[in-house]
């Protein structure tokens, strides 16, 4: 398990979350969380609090354990936890889901949890975040989607609402299979939030590059080699996080669970994650190429400067050699004249 690096970040206020719903491919605009109130049903809310969670510390958190019952989603997977408030399902309507999933990559996904309780839960979880995100980033990149529990048809996303079919499960939404289905959909939604964070991080890193491109067009190089190296490292780090260091994009868990994989890809397709990842990587390619161009120019300029320094040193050395040679010739001529005069 990971260890805690920093838990001092101010807890984000879930009441202020400006959750947005990312539409499927056919719709390009976003709507705010407030607009979703027109859709009947409860909500799924996904929030990225940081780079990762220390899941072992979360499980051993006494205050969390006092209020919520935690279980591993599956004995094979170590990157997801399922939480239900103690006694929450004992005396409420069978179709009223209230739970949350915690993913090792720093994302928590709430199902039917009111804003006040979301606020309370994030306050407990923020202590176990590794490399927390800034509160503004957390609030801006939160996602929400309405959901309804139904007893017929197939589980599907329709009209920006997830219809969860529980007719196939003996214990309704309490059934382990139903929980795994919600986990799989939450997994895809958590991936969408993480991609949103990467998009925001790339935008903030790429914004200064516009001035760099303008400066290059005017024949000016505003960076020094250290800054070019730092920028190269930042983009390489972001690319590594996207392509190699995120379990939310890993589908190994579903290799032998094709029925669950469909729920993961249901969210994956609804939030257009594949297209967003391609666009993200293409933008990263452009930014990395621009930084590489600046770095090459700086290297060439540095190499050219070294060449000129060597040329100048050679010229100076030749000058002194000529001077010494000339001085030695003058000395020999003087001695010759003196010897002739003495004779």
TrEMBL record:
Superkingdom of origin organism: Eukaryota
GO cellular component: mitochondrion
Record-annotated DUF155 domain positions: 101-281
InterPro entries per UniProt: DUF155, RMD1/Sad1-interacting
Pfam name, any one: DUF155
GO biological process, one term: positive regulation of mitochondrial translation
Coiled coil: none
PANTHER family assigned: REQUIRED FOR MEIOTIC NUCLEAR DIVISION PROTEIN 1 HOMOLOG (PTHR16255)
Family to which the UniProt record says this protein belongs: Belongs to the RMD1/sif2 family.
Protein name, UniProt field: DUF155 domain-containing protein
Species per Swiss-Prot/TrEMBL record: Syphacia muris
